Structures are given as structure tokens and as C-alpha cells.
């Protein structure tokens, strides 16, 4: 069995907006007489849009109509219709995610982008997507290395690092090329955090000042040093903790990072020498790239070329957001796709004791109530502690008892499991409920509290559903 599905990735960033279309090849990798094991075997980008400056109405508002028009034009150029798409992601990133209408923009784009496209934002996810788009995960695996990717965009720098292909941590800093903007030789905008960084080092700049290349390069050198501090290649200073986006957490100190890739719009200025007008993009991106390239602490790391630079996040969004759940799943026909379902996660400790399992579900369902009505929710757990037939029957009884409010409500009972027990468990729950309730039970998927999940329409003759797990976070 081999099937192609079409995916879209749309990235609305601080500086640029772009999209890609890619093909995901789904194959059964098991032998002829074994239980099917259906995975994504290949990912190939088949169309890359132009790169546009993100249209804004003001410093605080995205121009929704212009963004929609850009995306519509690119669909037409690619000869692709929303109905052709099976999966993908619309992601709003960097400082743009702080715009007042970010949520409504994503909703508008998600509706026009296809039946199963996730609308998502958040620095942790962005860090992972850009790193995978840059190839840092594969480099760490190939070289048995600890590799970080620094995605330096217009408003933020997202960092994710990997050890032998495994994600070890993420962080995000307010370091970016458009945090100081320049028009006609004058500074027109300074991000408050960068203003404070400059003041700490006795550099006085104000909006309206002449754009002095030497002065602005000094500020960029201090911005580059903050990135080096985030990787622990140099001791942090007194202001470093305040540089993290939304007072976020730094990277774990272990394992020690030994190599790095760079992505984002500024990365092209790190890897390549920019000629001509230093402020040709209307910001300090070229100077920041030069400062990062010349930073001695960062240069002490092994530097790998990135598979993608300015397109890393959009490639990650279009090719790395989707997993597949299949072979051992159970679902009610006609109930998929479903989108933006909040996850109620039962911890491993709670899962091991029946009373705690029941309490975990019952006590948290109130979080998903509006006007005293339980909203649609997915119950997630590992499934590692109920593997025998008898244990699965007992688990089905616990679910039927604990999820009573969902069962009495209008929405399907959705179960998301890491271990491959979904088909047996789904059948057991259906028998208990006398098949009077729609049940969707998928496995091979990890999801946590605070996550949302999208489950796509079945593909591969109904044996597989594409699944995206994400966090709908808007930096405010």
C-alpha cells in the first residue's frame, strides 16, 4: 500500500509571509504477513511561493484581507484547491503573533486553507518546526551530536536542540532583525526590550535618530551575545532572563550543545555576505546577521549549513506537523475530520490506579464546560498499563464511568493513546455503550494537557487518519 496526500504550510511571520505545498507518501512498512505498520515514508516539497513582506495595517494589526489575497494568489499559481489538501498547518510566528487580531487572522486562513488544516502559534512549536525545517534533528542524528538550531526572524529567535535526533529543549528570545526599523536613514521603531538592552550598555538611541551603522552594529553585537548566553557558550548577564519571550524558560543546560545551524531571514546574512545598502530591508537584519557570524562564542561551536534558512519554518509547518494513526484504530464513520479539540491528559501515575484514573477525568472535565455544558474534549493517556485483554476490558469500564458527562453529551467520545491498543479498546468501549455513542479511538499519538488535536479524514482505504497535535498559544 502506497498513497500520496497533499499538505500545505503557511507561515505568517514578523517580516515575511510564505507558503509551501508538499507531498507526504504513506506506506505500509510491515511484511506481507505481519500486522500493518503504516508510516509517512517520504516528504517532498512540490511548490514554494514567493516570499512577501507581511502586510500590516499598523504596528498592532495584521491586514487580514491582504494576507488572504496573497495566499489565494499562490493557490492559483500552484494550481491547487483547498479541497485537494488532506493536512498541513497555518502558523503565525514571531512578533506577528502578538498582534491584536492574530487569532482572527488564523481562523480566516484556516477556513480557506482546506478541510483539515491546523491554525497554530507559539514559540515552542515554532522552535521545533524551524529546527526540523533546517535539518538540525537529522544532523544531530547523523553526526551523533548535540545540535541546536537558532531561527532568527524579524521579531524573535527560536531555539530548539537535539541529541541524536531527539528533541531536548526549546526556548525563544526577543532578538530579531525588525526589532529596530529604519526608513530613509532614520530609526522609525525600537522594540522596548532592545531599547533596554542598549541602555544597559550605555547606548542611547531614540526613534527619529539618524541610523548610525556603527551604533546599531554595537547593539547587534549585544543581541548576538544574548543568543550565545542562551546556548551556555558564555556566562549570562543581569539582563539575560528578561530577553526571553513572555518571560519564558531557558534551555536545559544538559546535554551540552556542541554544534549549531541557523535559519530564518537573518540566517542568510549569517551564512552569506550581504552587499550594498546595509538597511535595504528597512531594518537591522543584515547587521544582526553579521554580528552573529562574528560572535566568537558562537563561532566556537561546530556550524553546519541549514537545509533551509528563510523557509525553514514554513517547510517545517508543511512537512513536520503531521503524524499518522492507523492499523489499530477505531472510529465512527462520518465523524471525521475534527479540528481544535482540547486534550485532557491522564498522567502515568494516575493511569496505574483505577480510582485516580476516574478522578483525573471527572475532576478535569469542568475545565471544558461552557454555560454548564461539557464541550468537545479528547481524553489522552499512554495505554502502557493495560495491555492484556482483561486489563483493556477494565480500562473500558473506567472510561465509560469516568467520561459519563461526555457520553451523555452531543459530541463523540475521543480517546488518544500512545500505545497500540486503540482498536481493541475502541471495540470494548463500543460494546459497553451498546454502540449507542460515537467513539473515536486512535493510537501512536502523544498529547499533553494544554495541547489541541486535529484528526483528519481517513486515508489509505480508511486504515489511517492524519493527526496533528499542537498548542494554540498567542503571545500577549
Structure in a nutshell:
With 476 residues, the chain is of the alpha/beta class. It has helices spanning 64-78, 102-113, 123-134, 136-142, 192-200, 213-230, 267-271, 285-294, 296-299, 312-319, 348-351, 354-364, 389-402, 404-408, 422-432, and strands at 2-12, 16-28, 38-48, 52-53, 56-58, 61-62, 87-92, 118-121, 146-152, 157-163, 166-173, 180-183, 186-190, 259-263, 302-303, 322-326, 338-345, 369-370, 373-374, 378-381, 413-417, 439-443, 452-455, 464-470.
Overview of the molecule:
The chain has 476 residues and is α/β, with parallel strands linked by helices. It has three domains: 2-121, ATPase, nucleotide binding domain (Nucleotidyltransferase, domain 5, 2-Layer Sandwich), CATH 3.30.420.40; 136-306, 2-Layer Sandwich (Nucleotidyltransferase, domain 5); 338-455. 30% of the residues lie in helices and 28% in strands. The chain has 15 helices and 24 strands. The chain has helices spanning 64-78, 102-113, 123-134, 136-142, 192-200, 213-230, 267-271, 285-294, 296-299, 312-319, 348-351, 354-364, 389-402, 404-408, 422-432; strands at 2-12, 16-28, 38-48, 52-53, 56-58, 61-62, 87-92, 118-121, 146-152, 157-163, 166-173, 180-183, 186-190, 259-263, 302-303, 322-326, 338-345, 369-370, 373-374, 378-381, 413-417, 439-443, 452-455, 464-470. The strands form six sheets. Strands 16-24-23-17-20-21-22 form a seven-stranded mixed sheet. The longest helix is centred in the middle third of the chain and has 18 residues, at 213-230. The two termini are 46 Å apart. The model is unreliable at 471-476 (pLDDT under 50).
Amino acid at each position: 500500500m502506497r498513497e500520496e496526500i497533499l499538505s500545505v504550510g503557511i507561515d505568517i511571520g514578523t517580516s515575511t509571509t510564505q507558503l509551501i505545498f508538499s507531498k507526504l507518501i504513506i506506506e505500509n512498512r510491515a511484511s506481507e504477513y505481519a500486522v500493518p505498520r503504516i508510516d509517512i515514508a517520504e516528504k517532498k516539497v512540490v511548490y514554494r511561493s514567493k516570499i512577501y513582506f507581511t502586510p500590516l495595517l499598523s504596528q498592532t494589526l495584521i491586514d487580514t484581507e491582504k494576507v488572504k489575497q496573497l495566499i489565494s494568489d499562490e493557490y492559483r499559481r500552484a494550481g491547487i484547491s483547498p479541497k485537494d489538501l488532506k493536512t498541513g498547518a497555518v502558523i503565525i510566528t514571531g512578533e506577528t503573533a502578538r498582534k491584536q487580531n492574530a487569532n482572527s487572522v488564523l481562523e480566516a486562513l484556516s477556513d480557506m486553507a482546506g478541510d483539515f488544516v491546523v491554525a497554530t502559534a507559539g514559540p515552542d512549536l515554532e522552535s521545533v518546526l524551524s529546527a526540523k525545517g533546517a535539518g538540525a534533528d537529522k544532523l544531530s542524528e547523523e553526526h551523533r551530536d548535540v545540535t541546536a538550531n537558532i531561527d532568527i526572524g524579524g521579531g524573535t529567535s527560536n531555539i530548539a536542540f537535539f541529541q541524536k535526533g531527539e528533541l531536548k529543549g526549546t526556548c525563544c528570545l526577543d532578538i530579531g532583525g525588525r526589532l529596530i526599523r529604519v526608513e530613509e536613514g532614520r530609526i522609525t521603531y525600537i522594540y522596548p526590550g532592545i531599547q533596554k538592552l542598549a541602555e544597559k550598555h550605555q547606548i542611547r538611541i531614540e526613534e527619529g535618530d539618524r541610523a548610525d551603522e556603527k551604533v546599531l552594529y554595537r547593539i547587534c553585537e549585544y543581541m548576538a551575545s544574548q543568543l550565545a548566553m542562551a546556548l551556555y557558550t558564555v556566562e549570562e548577564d543581569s539582563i539575560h532572563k528578561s530577553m526571553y519571550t513572555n518571560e519564558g524558560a531557558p534551555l536545559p543546560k544538559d546535554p551540552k550543545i556542541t554544534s549549531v545551524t541557523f535559519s530564518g531571514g537573518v540566517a542568510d546574512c549569517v551564512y552569506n555576505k550581504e552587499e550594498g545598502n546595509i538597511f535595504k530591508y528597512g531594518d537591522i537584519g543584515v547587521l544582526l546577521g553579521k554580528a552573529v557570524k562574528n560572535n566568537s562564542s558562537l563561532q566556537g561551536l561546530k556550524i553546519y549549513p541549514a537545509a533551509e534558512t528563510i523557509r525553514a519554518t514554513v517547510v517545517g509547518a508543511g512537512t513536520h506537523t503531521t503524524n499518522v494513526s492507523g492499523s489499530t484504530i477505531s472510529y465512527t464513520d462520518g465523524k471525521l475530520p475534527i479540528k481544535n479539540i482540547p486534550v485532557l491528559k491522564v498522567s502515568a501515575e494516575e493511569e496505574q490506579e483505577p480510582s485516580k484514573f476516574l478522578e483525573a477525568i471527572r475532576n478535569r472535565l469542568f475545565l471544558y464546560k461552557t454555560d454548564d455544558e461539557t464541550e468537545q474534549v479528547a481524553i489522552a493517556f499512554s495505554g502502557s498499563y493495560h495491555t492484556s485483554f482483561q486489563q483493556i476490558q477494565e480500562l473500558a469500564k473506567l472510561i465509560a464511568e469516568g467520561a459519563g458527562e461526555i457520553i451523555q453529551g452531543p459530541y463523540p467520545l475521543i480517546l488518544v493513546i500512545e500505545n497500540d491498543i486503540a482498536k481493541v479498546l475502541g471495540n470494548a468501549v463500543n460494546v459497553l455503550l451498546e454502540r449507542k455513542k460515537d467513539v473515536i479511538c486512535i493510537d501512536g499519538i502523544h498529547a499533553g494537557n494544554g495541547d489541541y488535536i486535529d484528526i483528519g479524514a481517513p486515508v489509505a482505504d480508511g486504515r489511517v487518519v492524519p493527526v496533528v497535535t499542537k498548542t494554540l498559544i498567542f503571545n500577549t
